[in-house]
Amino acid sequence: MEKLVLTHLQKIYTQNKKTVIHDFNLSVRDGEFIVFVGPSGCGKSTLLRMIAGLEDITSGELFLNGKKANRLPAKDRNLSVVFQNYALFPHLSVFENIAFGLRIRHYPKQKVNEAVYNAAEMLGLQRLLHEKPKQLSGGQRQRVALGRAIVRQADLFLMDEPLSNLDAKLRTQMREEILNLHQKLETTTIYVTHDQVEAMTMATRIVVLKDGRIQQIGTPKQIYTAPANTFVATFIGMPQMNVFHAAGSDSARWDDFIPLSLKKSDSYTQGRVLLGIRPENILVAADGLPVTVNYAELMGADTYVHGEIAGTDKQIVIRCEPDRDFCSGETVYVRFPEDKCHFFDAESGKRLTIEAAAYEA
């Protein structure tokens, strides 16, 4: 069953006539965990606010549980929103913060108590129910915000960068807790983030956005292994994918890495092909493309080698095992496995390989 359907959604701010969301289309199935990801200003939070009823829709249609909801007030959409800044009432206890949404809807006292205690047990807040928000850590405050969302028993959870104010260790911990909650509650969730790690580790499907437009929709594996264009290819993945102009570099022996069918194409013969390869897919070998090492970063489990392909101005990053040392100025040789190479049109940025067609938005 489709819990949420967005068709040709558009948002234009009348003050400056600026279009921030362009022809957005998405169907969300019951129980999915959808992540909107993209750089700052791409429109992901605006989209979330449109779904929540906090932002007007300029054109297009929004359906919740099969019913058109464009003009339905936020309070009648049966949604729970978790904001970046927690939005807790400082003068209320943890218990009262979690219970607030139920109390204003005049739930019976026994039902309120039962719902709050169940949420507190799920989130490990039992001992903190009488504390005030100022007495809590950032992670504990975020749990309270989650608790307030849980007790509503909403049809849809909306989360707007809920972990961005936490340190790295807490973010990892809270990611796990949110995923565990999703598995227990099976509530359809829309999650907004600029953090690709959150997107890759949490999502059922990812919606990659740029300048208010969908770049690609797919599972984390689809997004990573078959990016629809160069923006997705370089935005998702750390270190980001290496992307080079594939033609016009005889000294780099590019033809060794280009499939014959592609070399015969107009795009290639006219120099309009980009070759992409992820740093972890590059092989350091006895021979191949010569790379001059600039410097190496030891990251613990991996070493990132930054260099330049000899005879060109092409910068390259190689992800290697940590047990090998690299010196600045030395030459290493690399190979690109053909099945790990990605090809894009240099003008449009769109993927040229056939298998991506099913994954493009």
From TrEMBL:
<dbReference type="InterPro" id="IPR003439">
    <property type="entry name" value="ABC_transporter-like_ATP-bd"/>
</dbReference>
<dbReference type="InterPro" id="IPR003593">
    <property type="entry name" value="AAA+_ATPase"/>
</dbReference>
<dbReference type="InterPro" id="IPR017871">
    <property type="entry name" value="ABC_transporter-like_CS"/>
</dbReference>
<dbReference type="InterPro" id="IPR027417">
    <property type="entry name" value="P-loop_NTPase"/>
</dbReference>
<keyword id="KW-1003">Cell membrane</keyword>
<dbReference type="InterPro" id="IPR013611">
    <property type="entry name" value="Transp-assoc_OB_typ2"/>
</dbReference>
<protein>
    <submittedName>
        <fullName>ABC transporter ATP-binding protein</fullName>
    </submittedName>
</protein>
<keyword id="KW-0813">Transport</keyword>
<feature type="domain" description="ABC transporter">
    <location>
        <begin position="4"/>
        <end position="236"/>
    </location>
</feature>
<dbReference type="InterPro" id="IPR012340">
    <property type="entry name" value="NA-bd_OB-fold"/>
</dbReference>
<keyword id="KW-0547">Nucleotide-binding</keyword>
<dbReference type="InterPro" id="IPR015855">
    <property type="entry name" value="ABC_transpr_MalK-like"/>
</dbReference>
<dbReference type="GO" id="GO:0005524">
    <property type="term" value="F:ATP binding"/>
</dbReference>
<dbReference type="InterPro" id="IPR047641">
    <property type="entry name" value="ABC_transpr_MalK/UgpC-like"/>
</dbReference>
<keyword id="KW-1278">Translocase</keyword>
<dbReference type="Pfam" id="PF00005">
    <property type="entry name" value="ABC_tran"/>
</dbReference>
<keyword id="KW-0067">ATP-binding</keyword>
<dbReference type="Pfam" id="PF08402">
    <property type="entry name" value="TOBE_2"/>
</dbReference>
<keyword id="KW-0472">Membrane</keyword>
<dbReference type="InterPro" id="IPR008995">
    <property type="entry name" value="Mo/tungstate-bd_C_term_dom"/>
</dbReference>
